[in-house]
Design goal:
single chain; mainly alpha; Rossmann fold; 7 helices
């Protein structure tokens, strides 16, 4: 859901970004029926989406990595030495990004440079303890449709704010 929502928010701002989704427990199958339904309710589609496992190469190539849980952040940063300053929890990136301010596009600030400015606001500590518990978004797999809708609402709000910070 996050991939489709972020891509939609960036597209609405005229940004044709490469947005990809990968997980820690990917099974190589399509998105759940509830995820597809919730996104169709928002005019988005998961048609053709297949889950895949996060790889070090994906993290290395990414300008920004956004995870839903601390486990996602830990897995993204454990083997890629320079990933910590560009890997965040969804809520953490929205919260700290709002404090940092939008990316300075007119000054030529890259996404990686902006992410480093955001990361500088973190208190010191290991990557596995980044953010606050309230910054995490629980995976709704196996939960009822109401939980999927609540998760989509949260992701939509946070990713919309992140898109506005990335492409002011």
């Amino acid at each position: 859901m996050g991939e489709a929502l972020l891509r939609s928010h960036l597209a609405a701002r005229g940004v044709d970004a490469r947005v990809h989704s990968a997980g820690t427990l990917a099974w190589g199958g399509p998105a759940t029926g509830n995820a597809g339904l919730v996104l169709r309710e928002r005019g988005l589609s998961l048609e053709g989406h297949l889950s895949r496992s996060l790889t070090d190469a994906m993290v290395g190539d990414a300008d920004l990595v956004v995870g839903m849980t601390r486990d996602h952040v830990w897995r993204a940063t454990r083997s890629v030495s320079d990933a910590t300053d560009r890997t965040f929890l969804v809520g953490e990136l929205r919260r700290l990004g709002t404090d940092t301010g939008p990316r300075l596009v007119a000054d030529g600030e890259t996404v990686r440079d902006w992410a480093a400015r955001v990361a500088a606001l973190r208190p010191p500590g290991p990557a596995g303890t980044v953010g606050r518990v309230s910054d995490e978004v629980a995976d709704p797999v196996g939960e009822p449709l109401t939980v999927y809708r609540a998760t989509a609402d949260r992701l939509d709000r946070d990713l919309g704010a992140i898109a506005a910070l990335l492409a002011p």
